[in-house]
Design the sequence.
């Protein structure tokens, strides 16, 4: 009974293998050139699969193997009939390569694909060495030049991957991949996904890329993204660019992120030692989260809107440099993909206390950074922009709720903005105080005072003499009149200074309306000088 069952299962297995659409070779070792020569004759409905775990791939030339029309024709002259467009081969079937490059101890394979168009190329190759010296490990190369494919999927280990002057709809590095580096230059890629991969370096330079996602990966050395154009696909995806990985050094420089019709955002959430984001143009919304340990620099960028959720390093041994001119009037709040951008400007937004406080909190993070770096100028600029949002919210609260407390809170906020720029500019407080003193002195000039008993009557007499025609002419009366005006104005100015700084009079040296004005000036002076002192201390103790 058992024997019959085993026979049945064996028979079914043979039938399944025979009817399988996959073409699996029986031999153990396969030459690389043989694989692609065989692929030339297959149509687009077939698949060429080499995925036996015991299979080893043999290279004709261990130092450098070219998979190109030239080398295939050199071995198989009849392959010329497949040439198109000046030494270009089109591989119509899906190729799936799985196995290992045969055990190598003294040689280092470099495999280059050139001048070929693939329907789909999937690789699960591994290099095995008796001794894994670093110079061997980092020298192994799998490169593509002038190659086009709908999809390139790899689970390869130990190969450095190079793409140059190529066109791929998708490049995918799957989970568990361990490769020394990925280098993509001068290419057009619709979609790059690097998911749960371990690598030392990734360099993307001078490419046109529609979407990039690097998630859950560990990049032990650097991720360098330079001089690329990111043009989002029109497929409704909420994120066109995502970096959420452990990266030792991230350099994002001189890139252009184009605007999409679906408003797809850019999300950068790196963890590691260093982040440098410089001279980029972001036409899309940027979500900037950060868990950098020591170096964080953002400068020379052109932003549309930025949600700053970064956990910025603030200890003295760390370096944080963020150019405020880049972020001014660009900061918003948008923590999650499904949320709308919160600007904090409309009545509906100002009524949302939760999102408003989160937006203010992001400003507070920047203020702390500038204070820790002793950058008082930028800290004050951030603080003033934050205070503008607070003033708009106070207006909204008074408009919707009313009340004397809300009224005076708004007016005090507006007064602080004019008089001391919310405690950030003591010089403006001095200037405003000086103008108030001069204004009140002009008022006192037209009123009599105990400090100006002689000058005003003499000035009135000199004025009458000046307007009368006599043998003395006008010049000498004008000089006497001017002298009286200056003395009377000086006395009025001293009276205004005394009232403003509240030095005290004993009795107020004026009467009538001027006396009440003097009391008002004393009250204003006491209040405004208190604000000036507080503003001065705020900047001195910065």
Sequence:
């Amino acid at each position: 009974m058992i024997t019959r069952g085993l026979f049945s299962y064996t028979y079914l297995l043979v039938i399944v293998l025979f009817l399988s659409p996959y073409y699996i070779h029986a031999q153990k070792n396969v030459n690389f050139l043989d694989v692609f020569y065989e692929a030339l004759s297959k149509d687009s409905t077939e698949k060429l699969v080499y995925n036996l775990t015991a299979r080893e791939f043999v290279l004709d030339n261990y130092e450098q193997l070219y998979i190109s029309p030239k080398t295939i024709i050199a071995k198989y002259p009849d392959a010329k009939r497949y040439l198109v467009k000046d030494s270009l081969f089109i591989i119509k079937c899906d190729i799936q390569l799985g196995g290992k490059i045969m055990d190598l101890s003294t040689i280092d394979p470099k495999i280059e694909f050139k001048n070929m168009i693939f329907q789909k190329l999937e690789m699960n190759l591994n290099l095995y060495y008796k001794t894994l010296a670093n110079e061997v490990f980092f020298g192994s190369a799998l490169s593509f030049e002038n190659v086009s494919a709908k999809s390139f999927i790899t689970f390869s280990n130990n190969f450095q991957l190079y793409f140059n002057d190529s066109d791929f709809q998708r490049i995918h590095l799957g989970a568990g991949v361990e490769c020394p580096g990925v280098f993509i230059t001068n290419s057009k890629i619709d979609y790059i996904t690097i998911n749960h991969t371990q690598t030392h370096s990734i360099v993307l330079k001078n490419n046109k890329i529609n979407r990039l996602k690097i998630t859950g990966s560990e990049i032990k050395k650097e991720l360098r993204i330079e001089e690329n154009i990111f043009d989002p696909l029109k497929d409704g995806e909420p994120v066109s660019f995502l970096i959420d990985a452990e990266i030792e050094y991230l350099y994002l420089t001189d890139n252009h992120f184009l605007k999409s019709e679906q408003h797809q955002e850019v999300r950068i959430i790196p963890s590691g030692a260093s982040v440098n984001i410089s001279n980029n143009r972001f036409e899309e919304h940027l979500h900037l989260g950060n868990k950098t340990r020591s170096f964080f620099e953002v400068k020379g960028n052109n932003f549309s809107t930025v949600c700053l959720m970064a956990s910025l390093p603030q200890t003295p041994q760390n370096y944080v440099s963020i150019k405020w001119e880049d972020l001014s009037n660009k900061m918003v709040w948008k923590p999650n993909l499904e949320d709308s951008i919160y600007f904090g400007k409309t009545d509906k937004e100002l009524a949302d206390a939760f999102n408003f406080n989160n937006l203010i909190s992001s400003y507070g993070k920047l203020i702390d950074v500038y204070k820790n770096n002793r950058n008082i100028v930028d800290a004050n600029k951030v603080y003033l922009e934050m205070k503008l949002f607070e003033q708009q919210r106070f207006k909204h609260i008074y408009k919707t709720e009313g009340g004397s407390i809300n009224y005076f809170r708004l007016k005090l906020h507006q007064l602080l903005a004019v008089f001391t720029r919310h405690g950030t500019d003591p010089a403006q407080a001095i200037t405003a105080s000086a103008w108030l003193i001069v204004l009140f002195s002009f008022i006192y000039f037209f009123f009599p005072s105990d400090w100006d008993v002689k000058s005003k009557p003499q000035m009135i007499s000199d004025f009458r003499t000046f307007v009368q025609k006599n043998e003395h002419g006008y010049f000498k009366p004008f000089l006497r009149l001017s002298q009286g005006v200056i003395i009377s104005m000086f006395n009025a100015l001293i009276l205004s200074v005394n009232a403003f700084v509240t030095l005290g009079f004993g009795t107020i040296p004026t009467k009538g309306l001027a006396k009440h004005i003097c009391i008002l000036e004393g009250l204003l002076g006491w209040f405004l000088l208190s604000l000036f002192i507080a503003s001065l201390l705020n900047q001195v103790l910065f």
Q: What stands out?
A: The longest strand covers residues 110-129.
